[in-house]
Amino acid sequence: MTGDTEEKSEERNTAGRLALEVMHEIRNPLEALGHLTYLTLEEAHDPDKVIQYMKMAEEQMATLNQIVSHTLGCARSTSDPTASDLSSLAESALRIHHKRISEKNIHLVKDFPEGLTARIHMGEILQVVSNLIVNALDAMQSNGTLSVRLRRRHDNFYIVVADNGQGIRPEHAEHIFEPFFTTKEENGTGLGLSLSKDIVDRHGGRIGVRSSVRPGKTGTMFRVSLPA
Ligand SMILES: Nc1ncnc2c1ncn2[C@@H]1O[C@H](COP(=O)(O)OP(=O)(O)O)[C@@H](O)[C@H]1O
Ligand SMILES: [Mg+2]
Q1: Domain 3-227: which CATH number of 3.40.50.150, 2.60.40.1120, 3.30.565.10, 3.40.50.620
Q2: For residue 18, with 0-12 CB atoms within 10 Å meaning exposed, 13-18 middle and 19 or more buried, which class applies?
Q3: What is the pTM of this model?
Q4: pLDDT of the residue at 75
């Protein structure tokens, strides 16, 4: 193989990865926009509902925009971080997945104290929480329990997403934040956590995980901390 061909195939690989990454990332916001359009048409007679859904649609568009700029190599969306209410962010993330949550008959535990306002890139953190929820839903059988908790302690906000799914095997745990690491074969891209970690890092925060595969006590807890 000549150097030239190698370079070409390397280029194709990179393009393929990028396409995969973009497809994975736009799936959630596109699905959410689909649901929001449906809900708006259903509730078209209620102006308050329409406004509420359109505001949520706006957030999703911001996310799509952010993905595009990210893909084009701009490290971050052009806007500055804005003061965002974490409980409405968490509600939006859950709403995106409400269909799967109810289909799987998932028991939802929400602990959202009032008045937690963080200066963040809302669309980006929404993407992170959404990714954590997708993973939790993937890991659980029907009738599992999904908990989402928000906290403020000292100089940090905490967003915790926990499930009682299958857990992460110890030999996998050290790889889960690596791009393209997946245990879901063709159903996974292995990009959700690596992109989430990028986003949290850029916010000056941290993302940590605890998981158990002990029979009868399996489950996983992700904790995102963001500087207050
Ligand atoms: N809540 C969870 N429970 C069990 N395993 C998880 C959980 N979240 C992440 N993982 C593991 O981390 C891997 C990487 O996750 P992610 O980067 O989102 O990629 P993907 O979901 O496409 O596989 C998953 O394939 C899975 O093995
Ligand atoms: Mg994932």
Answers
A1: 3.30.565.10
A2: exposed
A3: 0.75
A4: 47
